[in-house]
From TrEMBL:
One annotated GO molecular function: translation initiation factor activity
Taxonomic lineage of the native organism: Eukaryota, Metazoa, Chordata, Craniata, Vertebrata
InterPro entries with a match to the protein in the record: eIF3i (IPR027525), WD40/YVTN_repeat-like_dom_sf (IPR015943), WD40_repeat_CS (IPR019775), WD40_repeat_dom_sf (IPR036322), WD40_rpt (IPR001680)
Protein name: Serine-threonine kinase receptor-associated protein
WD repeat residue numbers: 16-57
Species name: Goodea atripinnis
Pfam families: EIF3I (PF24805)
Amino acid sequence: VTNVWYSVNGERLGTYNGHTGAVWCVDCDWDTKNVLTGSADNSCRLWDCETGKQLALLNTNSAVRTCGFDFSGNIIMFSTDKQMGYQCFLNFFDLRDPQQIDDNNPYLSIPCSEHKITSAVWGPLGEFVIAGHENGEINQFSAKSGDILKKAKEHTRQINDIQSSVDLTMVITASKDNTSKLFDSNSLDHIKTFRTERPVNSAAISPTMDHVVMGGGQEAMEVTTTSTRIGKFEARFFHATYEEEFGRVKGHFGPINCVAFHPDGKRYTLTVAVSPHWVFSFAVIVIDSS
């Protein structure tokens, strides 16, 4: 079940009921009108943000790992897992064409047969999607032709998360190779590297400061035999320019799976998606980082 919360005081407003499996990804459009969710129940669903009504159901052959609206809110993308004999696909639907939704027929479907997509975000102007793969590679997929526009291979292991800067000019990655890296969105040029001693599950760029926050820790399967000190379960802050760590926030007893900054830049949260007014999450921890 996906929950929606007020980001100001943590009050829960309601739920979006319909999925029967774990929800792997959540996104809301720019005006917080619609919500998109992808699940292990082999479906991607579109919801009315305010009422919780399901607007569209897109069935897939495998779990939906990533999803997102382009900046206009008219085009959605989602990727499916490589499992149960099915390969990974990156699908694009135009919400302005009801026939695509009714027929469950994307206007573009890109097969990713070699290495599945593990994270993805839209690039500037909605011209392409930046996708991270299980082999550490980053690809730009054209939202019109499906061609790979650019590639980058700076990570040595799986990319767990990709998030954009507020102006969409940069993206930050989080990887199992114990690093987080900053890239130019258009050129995929590698800009900065932030190093840790444990796998990084998620990283985010501050919308107001030259800061990044990272979360991760020891692999979940090993947590039961590890103390919080050794497991490195802190949220870690780095300066985006100097690559230096300047702060940590403790408190978690297991790996941090996702981090995001509040749009005002003064708070961050363990969350799935953040809009200017609402937080979409299973469990929310908001901490003043000022």
